[in-house]
Write a structure and sequence with these properties.
single chain, alpha/beta, Rossmann fold, DNA polymerase, domain 1, six-stranded mixed β-sheet
């Protein structure tokens, strides 16, 4: 690959000691740079954003309550974003988490938040996936690959979809929340008393929303978050 066609990958500095960076550097035609990313772990060609989690990482983020908050932030990213889930079932042998809880987390991330999920067996395959995606993206941009027609998505529609990932929130309630608070950030920061004041929300749903977005909970099961 010529230098002008090199794939540029910015690696978050918190990933710099991992094996994925070493794998990327082993590929010809790949330029890597380490920096602090505000979102995600790998920025590829300034057009694609990837969050990488090993299976134990996924379990830990479910247990400490970070996963859903991270998912909401990824869903709002201005670039196409995907989650790469790395590892094999052997990595979960000692996780002490029900299979249903893990499946529920993945359902919430993929179906309700709209985050694509890619599976990888290890760091080398993770690097290959990102590079393959970059080259596919270039082929689409150049018109070399056919595009399936897509309906245009306004910002309000994307925001509504994200809010519908919250417990008890459907399209109409999502619309009312946006009308009342203006932004997703404001909805996430609103206290339960203000959320409950929105028509159709009520105290029970407001409490469920606060429970879902707060990081303080030690454990939760995202299988219970389906609307």
């Amino acid at each position: 690959m010529a230098a002008s066609q090199s794939v540029c990958v910015v690696v978050d500095d918190r990933e710099s000691a991992g094996a994925v960076l070493a794998a990327l550097r082993g590929h010809e035609g790949v330029e890597t740079r380490v920096a602090r990313l505000a979102l995600g772990d790998y920025l590829v060609d300034d057009t694609l954003l990837f969050e990488r989690k090993t299976l134990p990482d996924l379990v830990a983020s479910i247990k400490d309550g970070r996963l859903f908050t991270q998912g909401l932030r990824l869903a709002q990213a201005p670039l196409p974003t995907a989650l790469i889930l790395e590892g094999t079932t052997r990595d979960l042998a000692d996780c002490r988490m029900r299979r249903e809880a893990i499946q529920g987390a993945l359902v919430a991330l993929t179906l309700f938040l709209g985050i694509p999920l890619l599976r990888s067996l290890g760091p080398a395959e993770t690097a290959q996936l990102m590079l393959f995606a970059a080259r596919q993206g270039r082929a689409f941009a150049s018109g070399s690959l056919p595009r399936k027609g897509r309906r245009p998505r306004g910002k309000a529609r994307v925001q509504s979809r994200i809010l519908q990932g919250l417990p008890g929130i459907g399209p109409e309630r999502a619309k009312r929340l946006l009308e009342r608070f203006g932004t997703i950030e404001a909805v996430m920061a609103a206290p339960a008393t203000e959320l409950a004041g929105v028509h159709g929300i009520g105290k029970e749903t407001a409490a469920a929303i606060r429970w879902a977005v707060e990081d303080a909970a030690a454990t939760y099961d995202l299988a219970d978050l389906s609307p």
